[in-house]
Amino acid sequence: MTSLRAVLFDLDGVLTPTAEVHMRAWERLFAPYCDARGLAPYTSADYFAHIDGKPRYDGVATFLASRGVELPRGAADDAPGEDTVCALGNRKDVIVNRMFDEEGIAPYPGSVRFLDAVTAAGAQVAVVSSSRNTPAVLAAAGLTERFAVVVDGNVAAREHLAGKPAPDTYLRAAALLGVPAAEAVVVEDALSGVQAGAAGPFGLVLGVDRGVGAQALVAHGADRVVADLGELDAAVLDTPARPVARPADNQGEQA
Fold first, then answer.
1. What is the set of active-site residues?
2. CB neighbours of 206 closer than 8 A, spacing ≥ 6?
3. β-pair partners for 60
């Protein structure tokens, strides 16, 4: 008997290198924005600290706050621009979709091997992503048919689910698979994502270090970190599930 029966994959940076495209898209949005306003220059460190893994508008708001900039939230149908948080987020969406069209997308080979291994072993799988572009990315990468359950930014908005670092979207995916969270693996490359895994009663949180740093992933909740999922196989499913803290345990720690 395996301890774990489901694997819940983040998309960008875990299954596909779209995180790299997103990083460059955010830079194309915020580097000139900061330069024109005399703000501290935008760097890749800002992506990991303020944007990575979060819903798009939350990432915009968090980055702007780091520069002391306050904008009205606006609405999701705001025209791409700079007047509201949503307008900036929609402008980024235009940039990244143009890049997808021009550059294409291919999944990480190691991630596909790991996906093959766990599904062959009988595990159920799902994609859990903050991105509203998830269907297009899965289709472009040839992965659509591999996942019957997808909980993305569109589902989160429709069902009013809190985004990462809250565990809600991962919990929803486990529920749709009919698997208790304690028997599910969360696979993430973002700090907010491993925080989401650690915040829920999930059996295992796997971190994939695509640049944020192994120590940071562990510090934020990853039980184990690899540089590439190709390092792993279905033996991951035999990992004993992490113990779920009981109220008495928490009280003892606080004392």
1. 10, 12
2. 185, 186, 187, 188, 222, 223, 224, 225, 226, 229, 232, 236
3. none
For residue range 16-72, what is the model confidence (pLDDT) as tens digits?
Answer: 998 788 899 999 999 999 999 999 999 999 998 999 878 899 999 999 999 999 999
Report residue 240's pLDDT band, with 50, 70 and 90 as the boundaries. confident
Q: If one looks up domain 19-103 in CATH, what number appears?
A: 1.10.150
| Single-letter amino acid code for the residue at 137 | V
With respect to CATH, is domain 6-17+105-254 assigned 3.40.50.1000? yes
Alpha-carbon distances, residue 254 vs 195, 242, 250, 251 (angstroms) = 20, 20, 6, 5
Closest CA to 147 of 156, 157, 159, 137: 137
Could you state, in order of their start, the residue ranges of all structural domains in the chain?
6-17+105-254, 19-103
Which residues lie across from 208 on neighbouring strands? 226
